[in-house]
Write a structure and sequence with these properties.
By secondary structure, this protein is an alpha/beta fold. The chain contains nine helices and six strands. The chain folds into two domains: 141 residues, Rossmann fold (3-Layer(aba) Sandwich); 69 residues, DNA polymerase, domain 1. The two termini are 13 Å apart. The protein binds 1,6-di-O-phosphono-beta-D-glucopyranose and magnesium ion.
């Protein structure tokens, strides 16, 4: 069977390239404690792929404090959380790239397929730098310019646009359900990392199982 053309592969960052979710969690937990709001790791699952301000809203709702603060106070709280988070990022090294990712990137590069990043994190550049992966990405969507959080397809469409790729001939890789919905909404082929994900076109349990040849075989049958 003839291979179908792949015009781009677009990666999510947190949960696919590296596990910064735990740092986000610790930083939010610290802020939540100051507000007398209790959050746990199960709640943190709901924050994956959700922007900083939207995450804050979810946390305030969790503590029934959504009407207690004005916009300026909310921005101050979000900045405080980000300062905690940036402290954790100082610990990040290339050893924190998730298993299987360097091999996958190398295999895609070998075929000359452009690689993009679709992270809603405004710290994505800092994270890629700490992982020494900035060179691997041909285009990173700028989180500051994205108006709608995942599950809206905007960030994946922006990444494909930046790479000059047709979304219907491109692959997106995500670990969050909101991210999978965003990929599908953009018309791309959705690769999911995580057993519990639904609506994926191809799913693996962990990044170590992300095999380029297998992924292409499923894409070709799609
Ligand atoms: P920041 P992704 C997302 O990254 C995280 O999953 C999410 O928990 C976080 O709130 C969001 O980035 C914004 O991050 O506060 O650094 O701008 O999964 O889209 O790579
Ligand atoms: Mg993610």
């Amino acid at each position: 069977m003839e291979n179908k053309r792949i015009e781009a592969v677009v990666f999510d960052l947190d949960g696919v390239i590296t596990d910064t979710a735990h740092f986000h969690y610790l930083a939010w937990k610290q802020l939540a404690q100051e507000l007398d709001i209790v959050i746990d790791e199960a709640f943190n699952e709901r924050l994956k792929g959700v922007s900083r301000m939207d995450s804050l809203e979810l946390i305030l709702q969790e503590g029934n404090r959504q009407n207690d603060f004005n916009q300026a106070e909310k921005e101050e709280m979000a900045a405080k959380k980000n300062a905690h988070y940036c402290e954790f990022l100082k610990e990040l090294t290339p050893d924190d790239v998730l298993p299987g990712i360097p091999e996958l990137i190398a295999a895609i590069q070998e075929e000359g397929i452009p690689i993009g990043l679709a992270s809603v994190s405004k710290n994505a550049g800092t994270v890629l730098k700490a992982l020494r992966l900035e060179e691997a990405f041909d285009y990173c969507a700028d989180a500051a310019k994205i108006r709608k959080s995942k599950p809206d397809p905007e960030i994946f469409l922006t990444a494909c646009g930046g790479l000059g790729a047709d979304p219907s001939r491109s692959i997106g890789i995500e670990d969050a359900q909101a991210g999978i919905e965003a990929i599908k909404g953009s018309g791309m082929f959705a690769v999911g990392v995580g057993e519990s994900l639904t609506k994926t076109d191809y799913k693996v349990a962990a990044t170590a199982e992300l095999n380029w040849e297998k992924m292409k075989a499923v894409y070709n049958r799609y």
